């Protein structure tokens, strides 16, 4: 637990609805949260503001702020999420995106603008961009040509997310973008790092492609937890199994390791498929936990169930070998479990 008694320092990485789900679950466990958000969106309101004002695409940042707002159904949180209708210049814009655009221009710094918005919403934690510069996603996609063996290069988050082809590999433009110093610092000082769920190629994998973030993720002493999606997404991961998600992540960052992989028990039948998932997790040097984390009848994570699963992972004692992989200390601390009662755990 942190010295100020807020709970373990938890960093959640991702974007969009996946990160929203993680943050909604995380705030049940701690108030010491940092959300590190992808900044490659080029569609809708975010894409328009990015192109017109040269700012970071604000949509995913806005959603993270809304997830951490003191009153998620309060007036300001609802206003931030409000989207204008009609056919005029404001049509399709989110009010929160415009507020972030205004704060960024007035203050002159995107991180300070996010902090100001967080204060306005009385957020539980902090929202940070993964990079101080807006990024572009580029992908090699097969299945778009007559010859299925031929790959085509497509560019842009929307194009990658909606392609009818099969995404093979993604990269960022610029190739070696800077990492947000605040984001790398949060990861370095974290007790727990959670990656996923979310759009695999456009919201999850980009975090391990930013050199500074990648370095921080490899060397952090935090317990690292990967949360898999409940189902493949139309477009970028169509037809992907849980096993394939793990293989793809490992291919993009061979030296990246996590401690735990959380898989919804209803998404992967018992037997051979679970064995394949566990084997794929070995590439990430992780142990797999199958748990009921889904909202019944949907492909969305249930905040309470996901919080319970994360809490279970956090409370597990670290194996003795954990100190061999990353040099660091092992500190037992008292924390209040989300499942009730006080637990003695090793955060480091």
UniProtKB/TrEMBL annotation:
Keyword field contains Ribonucleoprotein: no
Pfam (any one): CofD
Q: Which InterPro entries match?
A: CofD, CofD-like_dom_sf, Gluconeogen_factor
Q: Which domain of life is it from?
A: Bacteria
Q: Where does the protein end up? A: Cytoplasm
This protein's UniProt keywords: Cytoplasm
UniProt main location, coarse: cytoplasm
Keyword Cell cycle appears in the UniProt entry = no
Gene3D superfamilies found in the cross-reference section: CofD-like domains
Q: Which NCBIfam families match?
A: CofD_related
Give the protein family: Belongs to the gluconeogenesis factor family.
Q: What does this protein do?
A: Required for morphogenesis under gluconeogenic growth conditions.
Q: What is this protein called?
A: Putative gluconeogenesis factor
Q: Which organism is it from?
A: Nocardia albiluteola
């Amino acid at each position: 637990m942190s010295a100020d008694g807020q709970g373990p320092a938890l960093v959640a990485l991702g974007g969009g609805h996946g990160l929203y789900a993680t943050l909604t679950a995380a705030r049940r466990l701690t108030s010491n949260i940092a959300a590190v958000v992808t900044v490659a969106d080029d569609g809708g309101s975010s894409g328009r503001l990015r192109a017109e004002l040269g700012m970071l695409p604000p949509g995913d940042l806005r959603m993270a702020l809304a997830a951490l707002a003191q009153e998620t159904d309060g007036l300001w949180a609802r206003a931030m999420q409000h989207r204008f209708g009609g056919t005029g210049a404001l049509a399709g814009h989110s009010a929160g995106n415009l507020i972030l655009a205004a704060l960024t221009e007035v203050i002159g710094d995107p991180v300070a603008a996010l902090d100001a918005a967080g204060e306005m919403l009385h957020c539980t934690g902090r929202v940070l961009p993964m990079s101080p510069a807006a990024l572009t996603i580029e992908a090699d996609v097969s299945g778009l040509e007559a010859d299925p063996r031929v790959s085509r290069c497509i560019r842009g988050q929307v194009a990658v997310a909606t392609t009818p082809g099969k995404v093979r590999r993604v990269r960022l433009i610029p190739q070696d973008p800077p990492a947000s110093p605040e984001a790398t610092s949060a990861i370095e000082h974290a007790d727990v790092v959670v990656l996923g769920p979310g759009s695999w190629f456009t919201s999850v994998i980009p975090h391990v492609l930013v050199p500074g973030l990648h370095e921080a993720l490899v060397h952090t002493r935090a317990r690292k937890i990967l949360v898999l999606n409940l189902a493949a997404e139309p477009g970028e991961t169509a037809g992907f199994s849980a096993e394939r998600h793990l293989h793809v992540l490992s291919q993009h960052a061979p030296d990246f390791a996590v401690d735990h992989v959380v898989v919804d028990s209803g998404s992967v039948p018992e037997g051979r498929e679970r064995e394949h998932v566990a084997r794929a997790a070995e590439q990430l040097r992780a142990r797999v936990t199958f748990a009921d984390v889904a909202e019944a009848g949907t492909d969305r994570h249930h905040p309470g169930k996901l919080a319970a699963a994360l809490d279970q992972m956090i409370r597990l004692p670290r194996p003795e070998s954990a100190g061999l992989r990353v040099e660091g200390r092992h500190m037992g601390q008292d924390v209040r479990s989300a499942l009730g009662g006080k637990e003695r755990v090793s955060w480091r």
